[in-house]
Amino acid sequence: MTTPPRSYGTNFRRAEEASNAQGTVQAALDFALQNAKKNPTPENIAIAKDTAAARQATIAATPKPSAREKQPTTEELVNEANAAVADAEAAIASARAVTDSGSTTKNVEELIKQYTSDVLNKMSQEEKTAERLSAYNILRMEFEQYGLGSLVTDIRDLLVNDTPTSEFGLRLRGTDAYKTRFKANEARIAAGLSALSPAEYVALEDQYQNVMRNYGLPATYYTKDSTGKQVGFEKFIAGDVSATELEDRISTAQKRVINANPEVSSALKAFYPDIQNGDILAYVLDPSQGLENIKRKVTAAEIGGAAMTPKNAAGQQILTTSEARAMQLAGYGVDKAQATQGYSAIGSGLQRGSELAAIYGQGPYTQTTAEEEVFKLSGQTEAEKQRKKITGLEKAAFGGQTGLTSGALARDRAGGY
Predict the structure, then answer these.
(1) Tens digit of pLDDT for each residue in 299-351?
(2) Are 55 and 119 in contact (CB under 8 A)?
(3) Spatial separation of the C-alpha atoms in residues 407 and 385, rounded to whole Å
(4) Which of 139, 248, 326, 396 has minimal Cβ neighbours within 10 Å of its Cβ?
(5) What was the pLDDT predicted at 177?
(6) Run of H or E residues at 4
(7) What are the two backbone dihedrals, phi and then psi, of residue 240, each rounded to the nearest 5 degrees?
(8) Directed axis angle between helix 198-214 and helix 243-253, to 10°?
(9) Nearest alpha carbon to residue 200 among 188, 190, 192
């Protein structure tokens, strides 16, 4: 900066002398602005006005440096502009608090705006671009911290091309990088759901990841790609799966199938061949499979697994099962615990009951007959009469002792007869 002419009044000289700036108009103006901000009296505001006028005139009168002179760098010019803006904002805020000085806020605002506008207008387009690139670099570091690095290139273009603030969000959402990073939003809109904001989208991804980590799922389920996106989560977001529902799905698979007795998994595969190789975890993580439907299938598998559990002395399965029968029992409110107890009793007495029915010429006593009584199904009354009849014949033939009454079939219901 150069020393301005001394024709701008005593106020400038007072500002210059008070700042001890040795005739530097920039330092004098800085002091005047700070003084007006701290104590915005009419006299101090007048000093600031005169000093600002000197600053403007100095810029206009300053000859362009020769090729040999060192020119200020773009960074220096940008820093100067940023400092001026900061001073302007602080001065305006302070001036608005003045109530008894006799000066007006408008005077101070006009003074500051005149100065900052002058500085910024002197900056070339190259310098403005440099300022925006500086903002881009800061933004890039922030975005990369949050796994949104794929958006940075398009943001750079928007900044450098001087995109208006009012259009920035709309233009950004129209970029390929944005659409790819938040791809599930397209599916949500197509399904009649509202699109999630970037903050909501990323927060939901974090919740999914926490659930999977807590249940010990392999990291491959939630690994991020180079754009920060977790591809496996797109189907959850598109399907409007909450973190609570995701946890319920994983818990159903782990606690009720994976960590259960092997017969449950065997029944699941037998009943539902579409669950390839018993991969129940992948099945429950498919949002196209409704959670309630998954739970019904798992319940049927638990009941079927209970029927598969009783074995004879040779280790062979005694009872049979089917998906339709298991679903029917589930419809009657039978759960895994009841099925386990009931089929244990049926397995213990069915063979003897069948033998007695054959011996005494009665109708066949089958697993279905026993299930109707044990699980209180339709036909319960007739099944109970049939059991009592063959046990009565056995008692009459052997003096009150029968294999059915001494075994599981003689027990009162609570899973037995």
Answers:
(1) 999 999 999 999 988 999 999 999 999 999 999 999 999 999 999 999 998 98
(2) no
(3) 17
(4) 396
(5) 76
(6) none
(7) 60, 40
(8) 20
(9) 188
Look at residue 320 and tell me if it is in a domain.
no
DSSP structure class, residue 169: H
What pTM does this model have? 0.58
The answer to whether residue 331 sits within a structural domain is no
Is residue 99 predicted with pLDDT exceeding 50?
A: no
Backbone angles phi, psi at 39, to 5 degrees: -140, 80
Tell me if 387 sits within 8 A of 404, measured CB to CB: yes
Residue at 324 is within a domain: no
Q: What is the Cα–Cα distance from 93 to 88, expressed in whole angstroms?
A: 9
Q: What is the Cα–Cα distance from 348 to 328, expressed in whole angstroms? A: 22
| Nearest-10 Cα torsion for 179, 184, 189, 190 | 110
Residues 273 and 224 in one domain: yes
Average the pLDDT over 158-166 and give the result. Answer: 62
Residue by residue, DSSP assigns 276-334 as GGG-HHHHHT-TTS-HHHHHHHHHHHHHHHHHH--B-TTS-B-----HHHHHHHHHTT-
Same domain assignment for residues 223 and 301: yes
In a domain, residue 322? The reply is: no
My answer on whether 299 and 208 are in the same domain is yes
For residue 7, give both structure tokens: 């024709």
Same-domain status, 157 and 93: no
**Does 116 share its domain with 150?**
no
**How many domains is the chain partitioned into structurally?**
4
Residues 6+ apart with CB under 8 A from 163: 171
Distance of CA 366 to the CA centre of its chain: 53
Claim to verify: residue 262 and residue 363 sit in the same structural domain: no
Per the structure, the complete domain to which residue 346 belongs is given by 336-410
The crossing angle, in degrees rounded to 10, of helices 25-38 and 42-61 is: 160
Q: Do 292 and 220 belong to one domain?
A: yes
Helix (H) / strand (E) containing 342: helix 336-359
Q: Which residues contact residue 212 at a Cβ distance below 8 angstroms, ignoring those fewer than 6 apart?
A: 221, 222, 246, 250
Contact 101, 15 (CB under 8 A): no
Inter-CA distances, 80 with 52, 85, 122, 207, Å: 15, 9, 12, 44
**Residue 237 confidence class, pLDDT cut points 50, 70, 90:** very high
Return the C-alpha torsion angle 68, 73, 74, 75, nearest 10.
Answer: 180
End residue of a domain, out of 74, 97, 123: 123
